[in-house]
């Protein structure tokens, strides 16, 4: 009985040791050659201009992979290329095993079809350590991440701290419009830095006068990103300049202090250079106390808000 159970579990156990293969198919063709006949172009090699892109393939660590030396992961990618009608595998990224990372070789590449195989270009020498962000002649960036990102987001925010208003006011300045503008740079490791500006506006009415409330926040960001297929996940943290402003009928008053933010977001890549995404975040700011207000022993002056935003990202 034990032998029978072991026999039934063996395919599952063996399957869990294999790396994970991820594909994105743009054009589907019937298989035309066997995997052994798929030609390999290394990272940095020039691919003929006549190459037709079928899709992309990634071979990544499945979490408990053991059959994942360089030859084995290339063989898996070639098999997927042949299955989808390609005859060329052009590597765009090769991550070698590292002490703090995966123990597997991990690769990404383009599955291509070249009809004229007589005059294939030899290309330059393969360089598996080529810098991320270089491009081959298919125009596909050789990285899980584009080096730089500009983004624009618009959404809604809720002030969760106490907000004192004089009696006789109407309106709710604790809910309002939120927006973000920013730039990120992310390295091959998925860690990077950026700069974000976040704004907020709302209003209330006091003595028949409309009072506009505005919040501004500017801060450098520590950025972390992960990508699987067409999806990306990001986490950010920053400390910077925070400002509160009220204005009505040509007059205004403002307070400034130190702020901080936490953000978690997701993105779907429409192409190598454009994506759409959304994020959920928290921004808090400490402000100086006002002489005209009374504070308890445990109270501090500040404004804290939750925001939900969505927008577009441009990668290059």
Q: Give the uncertain stretches in residue-range form.
A: 4-16, 122-143
Strand coverage percent: over 45%
What's the overall average pLDDT, rounded?
82
Lateral arrangement of strands in the main beta sheet? 6-8-9-10-11-12-13-14
Report the C-alpha radius of gyration, rounded.
27 Å
How many helices? The count is 2
Distance between the terminal alpha carbons, to the nearest Å? 59 Å
Gross geometry: elongated
Q: Which bin fits the share of residues in helices?
A: under 10%
Structural class: mainly beta
What is the C-level CATH assignment of the largest domain? Mainly Beta
Task: Tell me the major beta sheet.
Answer: 8 strands, antiparallel, barrel
How many strand elements? 14
Element order: H for helix, E for strand: HEEEHEEEEEEEEEEE
CATH architecture annotation name of the largest domain: Beta Barrel
- Can you tell me the CATH topology of the largest domain? Porin
Number of domains: 2
């Amino acid at each position: 009985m034990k032998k029978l159970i072991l026999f039934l579990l063996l395919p599952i156990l063996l399957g869990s040791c294999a790396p994970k293969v991820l594909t994105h198919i743009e054009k589907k063709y019937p298989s035309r050659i066997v995997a052994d006949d798929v030609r390999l172009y290394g990272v940095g090699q020039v691919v003929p201009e006549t190459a037709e892109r079928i899709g992309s393939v990634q071979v990544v660590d499945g979490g408990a992979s053991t059959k994942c030396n360089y030859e084995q992961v290339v063989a898996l990618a070639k098999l997927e290329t042949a299955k989808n009608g390609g005859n060329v595998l052009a590597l765009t990224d090769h991550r070698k095993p590292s002490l703090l990372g995966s123990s597997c070789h991990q690769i990404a590449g383009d599955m291509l079809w070249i009809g004229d195989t007589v005059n294939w270009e030899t290309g330059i020498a393969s360089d598996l350590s080529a810098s991320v962000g270089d491009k081959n002649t298919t125009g596909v960036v050789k990285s899980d991440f584009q080096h730089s990102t500009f983004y624009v987001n618009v959404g809604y925010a809720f002030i969760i701290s106490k907000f004192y208003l004089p009696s006789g006011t109407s309106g709710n300045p604790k809910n309002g419009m939120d927006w973000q503008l920013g730039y990120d740079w992310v390295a091959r490791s998925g860690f990077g830095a950026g700069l974000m500006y976040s704004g907020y506006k709302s209003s209330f009415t006091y003595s028949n006068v409309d009072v506009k409330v505005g919040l501004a926040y500017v801060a450098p960001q520590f950025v972390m990103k992960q990508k699987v297929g067409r999806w990306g996940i990001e986490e950010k943290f920053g400390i910077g300049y925070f400002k509160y402003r009220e204005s009505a009928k040509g007059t205004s008053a403002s307070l400034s202090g130190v702020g901080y933010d936490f953000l978690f977001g997701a993105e779907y890549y429409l192409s190598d250079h454009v994506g759409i995404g959304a994020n959920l975040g928290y921004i808090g700011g400490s402000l100086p106390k006002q002489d005209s207000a009374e504070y308890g022993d445990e109270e501090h002056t500040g404004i804290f808000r939750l925001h939900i935003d969505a927008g577009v990202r441009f990668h290059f």
